[in-house]
Every structure is written in C-alpha cells, then in structure tokens.
C-alpha cells in the first residue's frame, strides 16, 4: 500500500541536489552535511532518519535557508517550485517561508510566541503573506484549526499557548505551517516531545494533510517506528551523508547498508525480547570534521572485512528489483541474506 | 520472602503557590518489588510515574501512605539512610546529574566516602572495578564529566549507583535522551548487571517498547493511579484496562526486517 502511493511520474516539488553544508571557520575539514540529494514529490512524505550528529536537523533547516551561525551552504541547490532557495536573498526567502515552504519544530512550547493568542499567531502568518480582512482571517483560522483536529476552535482563538496541552500546541504550530497552503512542509522531530497517544494523532494528521492537500513533506526523526507510520520513502543519514534511501517498506524490511541494519537491530520494537537481544552498534560517531577517508562508517562496521572500505569513497549500488532503493557501500554484493550468516 | 521495597496507599499532593491549583499527583498507589526483580512503571507525562519512583527513595515525601523496606516501616531519617544502602536512584539527564567540578572518580567515590567505607586506596580500587563493570576504563576516574558523551555519562551515573552494591536501582527515564544505538548499549548493560549480579531494577519509562524488552512485571499508570499491573507477557498479550489497550494501540509498530 505504501509503495502504491509512490507515484514516480509525479513531478518533484522539492529537488535537493548535492547539498553540502560546511563549517565557517574550518575550511578544509570534511563538511557536516555532504552531497545530500533527494526529491520530494506531490503527496509524498520523505523521512530523514539519523542519530544526533548525523546532520539531519541541519539539512532540514537548510531547506528554508535558516542555518544557524557557524555553518553555511557551500555547494548544491535546493529547488522548490522552480526556485533555487540557496540563491534567494533575504526578501525572497521571507516570501517563501511559511508560504511555499513551512516548518514545524520539535518543541511547540518554544516555537509559539507565549504572548500571542492562538488567533493572533495564525493572523500573523496570514498577514505576512496576504492582505485579508479581519473576517476572512477569522474564517481561515477556524477552518485550518478544524483541519488539524483542534477541538472547539472558535472559543480557543483567544487562548494563549500556555493554556494548551503539548499536543494542542503542536496542532497550533502545524496549523500555522499550513494556513498559507504551502507546497512543502518540513517537520523536524515534531512528535519527539509528545506522549505516544498524542504522537499517533499528530502522525495521522501530517499523513492526512500530505495526501489530501497534495503537499510534499520532509519528516525528520530518529525513530524508525514513527517513520514507518508516516513516510513513503526514507533517507538514512550517517555522519553527514546519505548512506541508504528507498521506499520505507523496502529499506526497513530489507536494509542493505550495515548502518541501517545496525540501527534497526538496536531499536527495541514490540517484538523484541531478551531471548533475541538488541544488538547495539559498537563505538560512536566520528567527531565533526574528522570523518575517516573512504567510508564514514568503516570503524564501526561489522562487515568491514568484506569490502575495501578505505581509502576510496564508496559508490552507490542500486537494487536491481527496485531501482529507487540504493545504498552507499563498497561491498556491492551487500545483501541481508549474506549479513545474517 | 518479604518485598525489598513496598509502598502502600501513597497519596502525593503538590500545593499550588499563588494562583496555581493544587495537583494530586498520586491518588492512592500501591507498589512493591522483590529482591532481584525487574519492574517497569509506564505512563504518559503527568501520570505520576516519576513521583512514585522518587517517593520510593525519599527524594519526595508522600502526603499519605507508608513506605516499607524489608517489611519495616520507613519513618526516621536513619530509616531512610538504611533504605538507601539498598536502593540507588539514577536520573534522566546525565548532563544535570553529574557535578561538573568533580572528577568522575570523586563523583563515584562520594557515596563510599560518606558511608566511611574502606581506606582511600580500597575506594580507588572499587571505583576502578566499577568503571570497568559499566564498560569504561579505570583511568577515566581522573577525567571530568565534560569530556564524556551522553551515553558515557549515563554509564558513569550507573557506576555511581553500582559502587554502593545496591539491591535495587531505580532508573527514571535513563535512556530517553540517548540515541538508539547508545540506548541499546545501556539497556544491554542493565540486563547483564541484573543477570550477573542479581541487581533488581525499577525502570520508569514512557516507552513501552523499552519496558517490554527489559521488565518482568509492569505497572501502567494514568492520572495518579495504577490502572493495571501484570507480568509483561500477560500485559501485552491480554491487556485488561481500557487505558492500557489504548496505550498499546498507539505504539508505532514499525516494520520488522524479515527473518531478524
């Protein structure tokens, strides 16, 4: 069913090509995000998975050209609806943010201005991009709150964020992101600070809006279980690089890169038991700028003996049965059957 | 056999200050753990799971109710000190729970020093063996917390609890802030400590997948009450309470790789 949604004919709303993010003060060290390339199509949700330090959050911020001080985009392009956002100036970016491309952050408590009511927060976003009457702002606000499953919106327009629960705050943040009908929604760990029962509702909401409004969604998460529920395709990042990508069902049930396999084997799911213990990935992430020559994962790889991990960089291998599933490993024969021996 | 720790009829009320309302965090909760048992407490935010775990070691005082240690009521400060010889507590955030100005060895040895156990040389030896037990190097005792990652700091916290040879360790969301690969390292370490040293665990978590993996018995908490308590197997195969059923239905099932 997931693969059925994968409509390869549909045009890409967002095309990221060779995006590289480097540190300002250390030229010459390896970049923090390297050569990121993927597409997001209409009605499709692409999950980005990685651990802390993998570059997944920086990548999502770069999509709106909102990188923090100290890092910059050094090469590559981000084409959203025909525009290259890496070349846009600050004024053009203001038009894009919240209108063409919107973002939802991890902590809705920090993302909402505490001194503005729900009604004013939504009106601010509308004002920034259009010239609507007070009446139509109110109508649009109530409509979008209904869309995001916010109970009793008319009377809650006057509520302040602190009067709402975490789940409702995140719904307001999503409503703000959707009110200008963006083509692309970027969500960075939007459910990580929420309880599981609230998480489920938010995931369903993002999934429904993506499908019904035909938007493209980039969903960043560390949780493979969450990605399996919300995404159509998944991009696995390690140490600033994409190491594997493909349809969620293929990547999670038939992972090819040793890092993806390690990630799956170390995450408890509802079937894990002590009889079949978790298998952690040994060691830790190489520190920023100190990625080894060749494959970034070589020092932690259980299959190191099987390939020529250094000094050449690994190249992409494509699944012959499923060309959209590819992985970055020297061991081109790498298959699950072989790894489980 | 008597329970190692037992809490009966625990009520905890937090008094609101100014205009904020009083909060009834626990509304009559019973809890017990036998020596060597691994018990999980799950619930969502505000369910009272952390408050209950804190009351068990006296970090928080119950408004009503009794805590028993080896069958005897715990009342005086001396009773609590005796209880803490058997029960140690580990906090969620390893960046806040280790004193930044103390070396790892000092932090771990603090408890031994307070109890006046052994000579400084004995203590150094015990610190070294405990560090090795949690997968760190004996030489790490000289370093300061700042040079360690989150996962390593949580190992240090664990060493700090273990060095006192507790019968039970109370873990409040200790893997929540860690990456999955590091989380798996810590969980496997806890399993090993339980198997090889017979340490009991009270494992407080919001993550049902983690609790299911680790615990023999689970209490489900909701709004200050234990709504269901059962062996892990029965709780997951046949949840009785509506809330437990709801909670289980919300866990992202994920896709498991075929044949793994």
Automatic annotation (TrEMBL), chain A:
GO terms for molecular function: ATP binding; ATP hydrolysis activity. GO terms for cellular component: plasma membrane. Residues 302-341 are annotated as: Disordered. Residues 331-341 have a biased composition (Polar residues). Residues 16-264 form the ABC transporter domain. It is a peripheral membrane protein. Keywords: ATP-binding, Cell membrane, Membrane, Nucleotide-binding, Transport. InterPro entries: AAA+_ATPase, ABC_Ni/Peptide_Import, ABC_transporter-like_ATP-bd, Oligopep_ABC_C, P-loop_NTPase. SUPFAM superfamilies: P-loop containing nucleoside triphosphate hydrolases. It is found in: Cell membrane. One of its GO terms (biological process) is peptide transport. Its main location: membrane. This is Unannotated protein.
Automatic annotation (TrEMBL), chain B:
PROSITE patterns: ABC_TRANSPORTER_1 (PS00211), ABC_TRANSPORTER_2 (PS50893). Gene3D superfamilies: P-loop containing nucleotide triphosphate hydrolases (3.40.50.300). Belongs to the ABC transporter superfamily. InterPro entries: AAA+_ATPase (IPR003593), ABC_transp_ATP-bind (IPR050319), ABC_transporter-like_ATP-bd (IPR003439), ABC_transporter-like_CS (IPR017871), P-loop_NTPase (IPR027417). CDD domains: ABC_NikE_OppD_transporters. Coiled coil: none annotated. Residues 5-248 form the ABC transporter domain. It comes from freshwater metagenome. This is Unannotated protein. Keywords: ATP-binding, Nucleotide-binding, Transport. Transmembrane segments: none annotated. One of its GO terms (biological process) is transmembrane transport. The lineage of its organism: unclassified sequences, metagenomes, ecological metagenomes. GO terms for molecular function: ATP binding; ATP hydrolysis activity.
């Amino acid at each position: 069913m997931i693969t059925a949604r994968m409509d390869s004919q549909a045009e890409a709303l967002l095309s990221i090509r060779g995006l590289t993010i480097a540190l300002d003060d250390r030229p010459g060290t390896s970049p923090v995000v390297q050569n990121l390339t993927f597409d997001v199509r209409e009605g499709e949700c692409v999950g980005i998975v990685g651990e802390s330090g993998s570059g997944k959050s920086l990548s999502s911020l770069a999509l709106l050209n909102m990188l923090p001080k100290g890092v910059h985009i050094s090469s590559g392009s981000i084409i959203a609806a025909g525009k290259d956002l890496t070349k846009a100036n600050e004024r053009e970016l203001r038009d894009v943010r919240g209108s063409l491309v919107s973002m939802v952050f991890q902590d809705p408590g920090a993302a909402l201005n505490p001194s503005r009511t729900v009604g004013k927060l939504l009106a601010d976003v509308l004002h920034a991009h259009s010239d609507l009457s007070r009446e139509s702002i109110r109508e649009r606000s109530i409509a979008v709150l209904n869309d995001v499953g916010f109970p009793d919106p008319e009377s809650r327009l006057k509520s302040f964020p602190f009067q709402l629960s975490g789940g409702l705050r995140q719904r307001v943040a999503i409503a703000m992101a959707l009110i200008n009908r963006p083509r692309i929604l970027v969500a960075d760990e939007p459910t990580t600070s929420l309880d599981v029962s609230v998480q489920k509702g938010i995931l369903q909401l993002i999934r429904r809006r993506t499908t019904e409004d035909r938007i493209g969604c980039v969903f960043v998460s560390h949780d493979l279980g969450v990605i399996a529920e919300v995404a159509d395709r998944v991009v696995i990042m390690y140490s600033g690089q994409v190491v594997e990508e493909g349809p969620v069902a293929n990547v999670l049930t038939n992972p090819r890169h040793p890092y993806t396999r390690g990630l799956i084997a170390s995450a408890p799911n509802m079937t894990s038991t002590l009889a079949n213990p978790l298998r952690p990935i040994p060691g830790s992430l190489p520190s920023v700028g100190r990625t080894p020559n060749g494959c970034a994962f070589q020092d932690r790889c259980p299959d190191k003996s099987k390939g020529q991990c250094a000094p050449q960089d690994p190249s992409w291998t494509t699944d012959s049965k499923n060309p959209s599933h590819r992985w970055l490993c020297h061991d081109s024969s790498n298959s699950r059957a072989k790894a489980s021996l | 056999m008597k329970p190692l720790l037992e809490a009966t009829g625990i009520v905890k009320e937090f008094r609101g200050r100014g205009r904020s309302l009083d909060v009834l965090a626990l509304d009559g909760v019973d809890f017990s753990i036998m020596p060597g048992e691994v018990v999980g407490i799950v619930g969502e935010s505000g369910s009272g799971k952390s408050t209950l775990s804190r009351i068990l070691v006296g970090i928080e005082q119950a408004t009503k109710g009794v805590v028993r240690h080896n069958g005897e009521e715990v009342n005086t400060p001396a009773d609590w000190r005796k209880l803490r010889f058997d029960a140690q507590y580990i906090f969620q955030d390893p960046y806040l729970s280790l004193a930044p100005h103390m070396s790892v060895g000092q932090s771990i040895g603090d408890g031994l020093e307070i109890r006046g156990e052994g000579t400084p040389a004995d203590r150094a030896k015990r610190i070294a063996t405990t560090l090795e037990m949690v997968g760190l190097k004996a030489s790490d005792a000289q370093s300061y917390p700042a040079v360690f990652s989150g996962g390593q700091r949580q190992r240090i916290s664990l060493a700090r609890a273990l060095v006192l040879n507790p019968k039970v360790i109370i873990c409040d969301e200790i893997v929540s802030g860690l990456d999955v690969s590091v989380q798996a390292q810590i969980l496997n370490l806890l399993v090993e400590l339980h198997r090889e040293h017979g340490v009991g665990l009270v494992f407080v978590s919001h993550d049902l997948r983690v609790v299911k993996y680790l615990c023999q018995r689970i209490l489900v908490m909701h709004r200050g009450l234990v709504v269901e308590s059962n062996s892990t197997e029965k709780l997951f195969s046949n949840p009785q309470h509506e809330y437990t059923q709801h909670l289980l239905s919300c866990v992202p099932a994920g896709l498991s790789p075929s044949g793994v």
